[in-house]
Amino acid sequence: MHSLNVELGERSYPIEIGSGLLGNPQSLQPHIRGKQVCVVTNETVAPLYLPRLLDGLSGLDRVDTLELPDGEAFKTLDTVNRVFDRLLERRHNRSTTLIALGGGVVGDMTGFAAACYQRGVDFIQIPTTLLAQVDSSVGGKTGVNHPLGKNMIGAFHQPRLVIADMDTLATLPQRELAAGLAEVIKYGLICDAPFFDWLEANMPRLLEREPQALAHAVERSCRDKAAVVAEDERESGRRAILNFGHTFGHAIEAVQGYGNWLHGEAVAAGMVMAAELSRLRGDIDAALVERVRTLLELAGLPVAAPEGMGSGQFLDAMAVDKKVLDGRLRLILLSALGDARIVDDSPREQVVEALNCCGAP
Ligand SMILES: NC(=O)c1ccc[n+]([C@@H]2O[C@H](COP(=O)([O-])OP(=O)(O)OC[C@H]3O[C@@H](n4cnc5c(N)ncnc54)[C@H](O)[C@@H]3O)[C@@H](O)[C@H]2O)c1
Ligand SMILES: O=C(O)C(=O)C[C@@H](O)[C@H](O)[C@H](O)COP(=O)(O)O
Ligand SMILES: [Zn+2]
Hints:
Enzyme class: lyase
Cofactor: NAD(+); Co(2+); Zn(2+)
CATH superfamily of the largest domain: Dehydroquinate synthase-like - alpha domain
CATH topology of the largest domain: Dehydroquinate synthase-like, alpha domain
Strand content: 15-25%
CATH class of the largest domain: Mainly Alpha
Domain 3-dehydroquinate synthase N-terminal: 66-178
EC number: 4.2.3.4
Domain 3-dehydroquinate synthase C-terminal: 180-324
Bound molecules: nicotinamide-adenine-dinucleotide, ligand LNCXM5UN, zinc ion
Order of helices and strands: EEHEHEHEHEHEEEHHHHHHHEEH
Largest sheet: 7 strands, mixed
């Protein structure tokens, strides 16, 4: 087992990465402060992993469970309200701990419920998708979507513990594995050039789910993310680099309808758009853009805009991005492999040209 720490003073917490962690009371129970927990999961993950997790929780006074409907389309306030209903029906108090068992959708909503319930209770992340293990379970961004924009309602609320049990990846559909690889590749691009080189050499091993390769990718990604979050917990500066590809990607998710393009797929295409824009500004060369495209394609990810989605639709949807300041788009662009920065002076025509390069007329 590998253990990392997210260093945030009194809000610091461990990320435990390994095999056989789910049903082990020793990995979980020392981190549960009260004697009550509510496990929030979904209808797909519950039959696969809830019984094993419940073994790891035996001995507590109260263990309630809640199964939410599955899918990005259900990442809404209405669904979070079902968590509040369950907690109130079962008289959970401020000493309760919510446990998110599932992918990023369950994690983001459970974290948001934990941030709000009785003004804030503990929560633990048990991510079961690659994307959630390498990204969404770490860093404390929680929330839900709005029809007009992705993750528009939310809160920063750090978990007390993250447990990434690598065994859960065995049942993940290949399309979901690829979606997680998009965020893994993101770390190489924004802050870890040697990791990008490693990914180029080892992508076939990851796609074959070789345990050592997957464990290395999860650990390295979590390490990279934890370092950025420790520097800037609430995204007042550097943390925004974790949004590389996301302004374009969130536009795709919203315009296509939540769940039609997976988050990781939309981010993959968005990263190519951001790389093209970086090239048009003269910051990186065409050879690096090709490396980005090639690696994403090798991972089985889309590298162009959805069919029929034009640059006008992109720009409209991108105008609600949370990074917009005084009406100006702020985009995360590359200065080099492994080096990203926030840019607020890209002319509209150049953004349109980058979109054109990626198949959006
Ligand atoms: N908070 C953050 O920092 C952050 C970071 C990145 C992404 N996100 C959010 O995360 C969400 C995407 O998360 P995701 O990619 O995990 O999607 P997801 O939560 O929808 O899970 C993908 C699918 O896999 C299923 N599943 C989960 N674990 C499984 C397993 N072990 N075996 C088989 N099936 C399994 C789920 O039921 C779902 O159908 C998006 O809403 C995105 O905005 C948040
Ligand atoms: O943790 C972060 O910070 C991120 O930006 C990680 C992203 O991968 C993630 O998709 C996040 O939810 C995007 O946040 P948003 O604030 O841009 O909606
Ligand atoms: Zn993301």
